[in-house]
Amino acid sequence: MKKVTILAFALFAMMTPALVKAQSETYKLFKVDVGAGYGFGKAKGVLFYAEPKFNLHDNFAAGLRFEGAILGNVSGNDQYASADISAIGSYALTGDYYVGTNGFRPFGGLGVGLFNMGSVSVDSETSEAPEMSVGTKFGVVPRIGFEAGHFRLGLEYNLITGQPSDFNRNYFSLKLGAVIGGGKK
Is the full-model pTM beyond 0.85? Predict the structure, then answer.
């Protein structure tokens, strides 16, 4: 985990000089998206994210997304209960293509990176110990949305590879956030 974080920051730092030369003519070079969202799919929950980005062109931004999500399901009745809870931290290199240069900018993008997951399943009908799963998996994140001024709304699908089919933690996320910096020059 520590090695992955150091590698990601090292790559980001090495890219910085090249990014300074390849910047947008209309927008400031650097911005950070921060916000929260709702994760849904097989499990539901909350998530928080931060994504520093460089505006490489008027219509393209590249960045590094950091996201933490808590997803789960609880079911049962007065005689039975079961719960599946997952904590997922992800680090992804991202690219977004923006349509237009006005105040309302729809975008589509893609991210690729690593998902660190810890999950536990508990079932009151069995006397077995809770089932636990941890690991780091590769993932892909296609996304769409829009920015309006410093407001950002997005829909993403977090496709995590290499998971057992009975413990699938792929999820959609609906995100609401703020864009800090990166406005028009």
Answer: no
